[in-house]
Amino acid sequence: MSFLRKSVKLLNAAAGRQQNLKAIVGSTLRHQRTYSSEPPNDYANFPGAKAPFVSKLKLNMPEDYAPIPIYRVMDRDGFIADETQDPQLGREVVEKMFRDMLLLNTMDKILYESQRQGRISFYMTNFGEEASHIGSAAALEMRDLIYGQYREAGVLVWRGFRIDQFIDQCYGNVDDLGRGKQMPVHYGSRELNFVTISSPLSTQMPQAVGAAYAMKMRPNNDACVVCYFGEGAASEGDAHAAFNFAATLNCPVILFCRNNGFAISTPSHEQYRGDGIAGRGPMGYGIATIRVDGTDVFAVYNAMKEAREYVLRENKPVVFEALAYRVGHHSTSDDSTAYRSTEEIEVWNSVEHPISKLKRYMVHKGWFDEAEETAYIKEVRKKVLKQIAVSEKKLKPNWKEMFEGVYAEMPEHLVEQQRELQEHIEAHKDSYPLKDFKQ
């Protein structure tokens, strides 16, 4: 370091110490002015909080604070509101976004009906939230690690998860990457940096923050973690632990809340008070926060780009709230018409639908061809139906696999359980459909 730079550094340090000393002395002198008529307008320096003093008591109410604004790029008619916010994506990228949303939407419809026919046990659709999946995935790098909840299939679509992989997982057959150990729609892919989904709400959140902390420790880290969760999951204790963990340890994680209005049958106004999930970020946990229109694929894309740059540059987290509407039922175990009107659903399934908005944008640009859209949907339907016919005929994994893949060396109690089950199966072969399982 040059002599000049050393001198500047020393002077800055000395100035900092002098300012601290002045603050301490000034604070002491001010506290001596107990009977002064001068209003106490000094700034507190408690270890627990830094804030100004006031001489009048006031109950701080939620309505005293303006809500965090919702960032959007496109209006419902597909027009860019502010040209400076146009991400200037090329036609090829926009068409991929549109096709991937169509693929997800089409696959959802067929697999939902597959469950209704009793061919799979469970399913969850992504209707109305396609833009938050595709827009966020498009702004990330493949090396970024994803922790999903159970409604982020579009992220996998963008990253290249194939139709056969989706359907094999839903059928839990021998080609399922999860080896038949998970419920349908609980996808995972080591190749695509997508951690396998688990059913309990919010368990992925502290895990994701921990993974981000590990990344931070790596020299020259150039990847972040993105953790998706719903507004209902944000009511779980693990969510609050994750927020605080991320904030206090400065972890490069994007905590992406899909606020779709309903946690199964519970509307958001019954789920929490305050300014959504975004409101917990700046004041609640001291985390930089973004709130976007989750039906606008360009808004989600721009915001995710900004969030990713920030967490990597600052090694700090971001709370990201994407506001949308769950058009479909929560799952095949739910009937959403019991707690909301069909008229309300129809509005969000038409004029406010993310696919409709992107389609209108493409029409304005001269990039949309209705015949091509129809042909593509037919092609996807054909592929999905063909794959279902293939996947449901595949064998189930060998029953022994339920004991494998957890420990490097199987512990004694599992060895004993496996032996007992094997003896039971051999004694009652006629009672089990062993021909349907890999031997």
From TrEMBL:
UniProt keyword Mitochondrion, yes or no: yes
UniProt KW Transit peptide keyword: yes
Example GO molecular function: metal ion binding
Cofactor(s) needed for function: thiamine diphosphate
Transmembrane segments: none
Enzyme class: oxidoreductase
Catalytic reactions of this protein: N(6)-[(R)-lipoyl]-L-lysyl-[protein] + 3-methyl-2-oxobutanoate + H(+) = N(6)-[(R)-S(8)-2-methylpropanoyldihydrolipoyl]-L-lysyl-[protein] + CO2
Keywords: Metal-binding, Mitochondrion, Oxidoreductase, Potassium, Thiamine pyrophosphate, Transit peptide
Compartment(s): Mitochondrion matrix
Role of this protein: The branched-chain alpha-keto dehydrogenase complex catalyzes the overall conversion of alpha-keto acids to acyl-CoA and CO(2). It contains multiple copies of three enzymatic components: branched-chain alpha-keto acid decarboxylase (E1), lipoamide acyltransferase (E2) and lipoamide dehydrogenase (E3).
Family: Belongs to the BCKDHA family.
Protein name (Swiss-Prot/TrEMBL): 2-oxoisovalerate dehydrogenase subunit alpha
Organism: Drosophila pseudoobscura pseudoobscura (Fruit fly)
